[in-house]
Design goal:
Layout (H helix, E strand, L loop, with lengths): L1 H29 L5 H17 L7 H25 L7 H30 L2
Helix pairs in contact: 1-2, 2-3, 3-4
């Protein structure tokens, strides 16, 4: 969610830098993913940066939708990179269920953050 928020405002260069930094930290903490999180987070941030030119991201519903789509795209890119690295393909359905649940939890958190920002900061 932090990467999406920054990518909406920073443009492509800032999105690539923060996406790569965030993904690199995730890869370093995971230890066995290669560069999957780095690639997935960077490409998702770049996609959000491009979508910011086409949408009105100040709307809470559009922001939450962008967060959910970015989370799903990031998870799909992560799985694609892992499968290219030789990860077991048979775990795809299990991972799809986890990715959808993760996107729903992210949407819930995004809506809470948007509501709290609207309620406490903008007034």
């Amino acid at each position: 969610m932090v990467v999406v928020t920054y990518a909406l405002r920073a443009g492509p260069a800032g999105a690539i830098l923060l996406g790569a930094a965030g993904g690199l930290i995730e890869d370093a903490l995971a230890g066995n993913t290669g560069a999957a999180w780095t690639i997935a987070t960077t490409l998702a941030a770049l996609g959000v940066s491009g979508a910011a030119r086409l949408t009105f991201a100040d709307s809470p519903s559009v922001f939450a939708a962008l967060v959910v789509v970015a989370a799903l795209v990031r998870e799909a890119l992560y799985w694609a990179v892992l499968s290219l690295e030789g990860y077991q393909v048979g775990l795809g359905m299990h991972y799809t269920k986890i990715a959808i649940a993760c996107a729903l939890y992210t949407a819930l958190i995004a809506m809470i953050v948007v509501w709290a920002r609207w309620r406490f900061i903008t007034r």
